[in-house]
């Protein structure tokens, strides 16, 4: 698997192939905390009150406006943590676009899939998808704007998952192996707590959401490792600016 120059560039190539993604999902040391739990919708693709993409396209005689609507909807879904719904809209744009827009959209799509994995207890899948999405964002060389900020925020998330997994990956009930940067030790990454709910969302007093690593929910999460949940502040206009590159 080809990887770009990430600070964590050792582990993606060492992960075994994951099963194909099913098409779609479900934090700060503050006095007021809100733990957010996730209950899957009956239909991730078309939540109640939203028509299918095909129906919307049939009613939209302007293909440009249709594309605008899809990206706007994808951003709104990502920021509301409907990562599967975001994936569906981004996939439509990805299939109909050309590079560099196609490449960027694919990167954002993979980040969305990564969060789907993370909140469904597939930590290895989360690192793999976010890592590949981050590679695409970095190769576009953004130095300012919302996509640059998104890249920085996703990099912080990947490093957060990596570090929390690194701390516990090599230990189980029977033995504890030193993480010595060998292939054997790196293969353990992502395996810690597989299938267990280790990562939670918590809201601080300013309504910002954080991903919190807290394997034991019986203890306070005030001092547990955390990272801010990324928000995408991009518009269709930002996306279209790539056509001028």
What does this structure look like?
Helix 2 runs antiparallel to helix 3 (83-96) and helix 3 packs antiparallel against helix 4. Strand 2 (199-203) and strand 3 (209-213) form a beta hairpin. The chain has helices at 53-59, 63-79, 83-96, 101-118, 123-139, 146-168, 183-187, 236-240, and strands spanning 34-36, 199-203, 209-213, 226-228. The protein is an alpha+beta fold. The longest helix is centred in the middle third of the chain and has 23 residues, at 146-168. The protein has a four-stranded antiparallel sheet with strand order 1-2-3-4, covered by helices on one side. It has eight helices and four strands, in the order E-H-H-H-H-H-H-H-E-E-E-H.
Q: Which secondary structure elements does this structure contain, and how are they paired or packed?
A:
Elements: E1 34-36, H1 53-59, H2 63-79, H3 83-96, H4 101-118, H5 123-139, H6 146-168, H7 183-187, E2 199-203, E3 209-213, E4 226-228, H8 236-240
Antiparallel strand pairs: 1-2, 2-3, 3-4
Structure in a nutshell:
The protein has eight helices and four strands. The protein is α+β, with helices and mostly antiparallel strands. A four-stranded antiparallel sheet has the order 1-2-3-4, covered by helices on one side.
């Amino acid at each position: 698997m080809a990887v770009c120059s990430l600070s964590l560039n050792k582990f993606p190539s060492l992960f075994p192939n994951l099963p194909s993604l099913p098409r779609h999902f479900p934090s700060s040391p503050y006095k007021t905390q809100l733990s957010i739990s996730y209950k899957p919708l009956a239909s991730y693709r078309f939540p109640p009150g939203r028509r299918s993409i095909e129906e919307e396209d049939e009613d939209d005689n302007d293909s440009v406006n249709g594309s605008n609507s899809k990206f706007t909807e994808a951003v709104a879904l990502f920021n509301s943590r409907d990562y599967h719904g975001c994936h569906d809209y981004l996939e439509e744009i990805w299939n109909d676009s050309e590079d560099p827009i196609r490449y960027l959209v694919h990167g954002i799509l993979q980040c969305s899939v990564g969060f789907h994995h993370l909140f469904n207890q597939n930590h290895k899948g989360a690192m793999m998808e976010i890592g590949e999405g981050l590679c695409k964002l970095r190769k576009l060389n953004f130095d300012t704007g919302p996509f640059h900020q998104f890249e920085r925020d996703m990099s912080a998330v990947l490093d957060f998952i990596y570090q929390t997994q690194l701390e516990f990956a090599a230990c189980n009930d029977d033995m504890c192996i030193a993480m010595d940067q060998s292939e054997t030790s790196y293969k353990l990454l992502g395996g810690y707590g597989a299938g267990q709910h280790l990562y939670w969302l918590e809201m601080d007093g300013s309504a910002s959401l954080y991903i919190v690593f807290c394997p034991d929910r019986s203890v306070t999460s005030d001092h547990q490792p955390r990272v801010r949940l990324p928000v995408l502040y991009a518009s269709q206009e930002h996306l279209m600016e790539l056509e001028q590159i």
